[in-house]
Design goal:
The structure is a homotrimer.
Chain A: E1 2-7, E2 10-15, E3 21-22, H1 24-38, E4 45-49, E5 54-56, E6 58-59, H2 61-66, H3 71-86, E7 92-96, E8 99-101, H4 103-109, E9 113-117, E10 123-124, H5 136-145, H6 148-157, E11 160-161, H7 163-168, E12 174-176, H8 178-192, H9 197-207, H10 209-216
Helix pairs in contact in A: 1-3, 3-10, 5-10
GO molecular function (chains A, B, C): delta(3)-delta(2)-enoyl-CoA isomerase activity
InterPro entries (chains A, B, C): ClpP/crotonase-like_dom_sf, Enoyl-CoA_hydra/iso
Protein name (chains A, B, C): Enoyl-CoA hydratase-related protein
């Protein structure tokens, strides 16, 4: 479901569960992998990547439908995943091999940088078209990471951004062809792996203090 | 003074009072029209547009000069107009047929998107050259809607932006020739009219919570 | 060490102390010059500029190493310099003749606008590579002045931006060849010198209220 490998100084965390929706098992595996990564000493950086045409489609709506009484607890755990990435003591790069939708798009935003595949796949926050709104934590994350006009358009219209459009809108920083997405992300991460992890974590945690507070507070605000 | 018509799913609210300054009568008519619009059920979107060379020049300084004791009450009503647009339960597009100055520029910013006329007309916050400052509500609206560097330049220098400059600065999203401004805005609004109004309103209200709080609080902070 | 001259309506404050690090003497001279400038009546604008290949390299780490017990007091004084520029009752333009690093880069950000030399010199926040973090005041200043994605990249990676890269990233607004940096800044400042200083100061102080509060509060938060 989740595979953690090391390529030089770079941890590569591959999500390999179809649409990579956040099932409880997926979340548990991701949390465990980030526990391992966070213990790193010395140079290090993290790349996350999906498989096939999905980076991640976000919340596991099937599981949620069958477990509605656990919605708040579940959202708290998703928020926690974002918060862990935002406070991870090393640089992070998302390799967007495919769709990053809804909670999966927010997962991408929780990384320092992102490389997005050019020929296929969208970044999209489709909540408005699903009749859903954003939790205070998710809203804080999106607003902390996206230019104001982009956050507005993405949240109000549910626009699907191609890689080129996502660069223009300030959502991702780089694009690459399918085969080059992961290598480009790993190369970028490797170039940053020499940064002192503790310093990176402290600067990032300070920078996103309000978003982290929203993500670690009550899920429904 | 104000004319509300419906073009398919799109409400078109035309301001037709010369410079379209916010006289008490103008505000009353706008409030009434937005009351009608807000009651819409089913698909819907709003376009506002002015007439001739003015979208709106903002505060009615003549009326204010004769009613200085009502300044705070008056500003509260102007703030309320912005707040109603920010929380309107449907997508909104401003068709900037001409000048959008001062409070009229802020009115444009209270819409989801704006289309601006290319050959004539400026977006301008001239307060600095009038010896005026911005109320906390106005400042919050401007800062919530404009890129930081643009808010700074617009507020500190009173720069007049042409349509092309306004796109580059992130003030408006699209430009059109005079005859195409309203059709382009209506077409854009129609493309968004299928969004669930309640969801759009909730997402936008959450997104601009701090600005809405400033706009609905005491006018002088 | 610091030379204050007047060129028409424009005050030109030249830093002439090598790397222009903020020694206590440098800070005292800058504070005195800004006292003089702030007393201006009538048209006025401020340009600051360094000498040779340095605009300013920021904190005086040598002095700090010898006076570690005065770190908080010292930082408070540096914060105060930024706060004075942010609240100065006239337009301000930084002429970046050379490197603007760390606290020197933040000094540039405390101006309304900046012109940067094209062939040599970087804007850089190298704190992450020095194992340093940002004080709440510095972080608030950077976040208030830079686009979100730029603040992130600059603070997390310590990237060195050339003039062209700094324009693209929204750090500075204009570039010029070495000999033209100061004249361009003076010309720009002169074009803004007619603004009412009190109004400019009030608008800017309102606009950066939270950053000013962070800069004038306890240095370590």
């Amino acid at each position: 479901m989740i595979d953690l490998q090391r390529d030089g100084d770079v941890f590569v965390l591959r999500f390999d569960a179809g649409e990579n929706r956040f099932s409880p098992d997926f979340l548990g595996a991701a949390e465990g992998a980030l526990d391992t990564v966070a213990k790193n000493d010395g140079p290090g950086a993290l790349v996350t990547v999906g498989t096939g045409k999905f980076y991640s489609n976000g919340l596991d709506l099937d599981w949620l439908g069958a477990n509605q009484d656990r919605f708040e607890e579940y959202l708290g755990r998703v928020h926690g995943l974002y918060a862990r990435l935002l406070s991870l003591p090393m640089p992070t790069v998302a390799a967007l091999n495919g769709h990053a939708f809804a909670g999966g798009g927010m997962l991408a935003l929780a990384h320092d940088f992102a490389v997005m595949r050019t020929d296929r796949g969208y970044f999209c926050l489709p909540e408005v078209d699903l009749g859903m709104t954003f939790t205070p934590g998710m809203s804080a994350l999106i607003q902390a990471r996206l230019p104001k006009r982009t956050a507005h358009e993405a949240m109000i219209t549910g626009r699907r951004y191609t890689a080129e459009q996502a660069v223009a809108a300030g959502i991702v920083q780089r694009t690459a062809e399918e085969a080059e997405v992961l290598p480009a992300a790993v190369e970028w991460a490797a170039s940053l792996a020499g940064k002192n992890g503790g310093t990176v974590g402290k600067i990032r945690t300070d920078l996103y203090g309000p978003a982290l507070a929203a993500l670690t507070g009550p899920a429904f605000g």
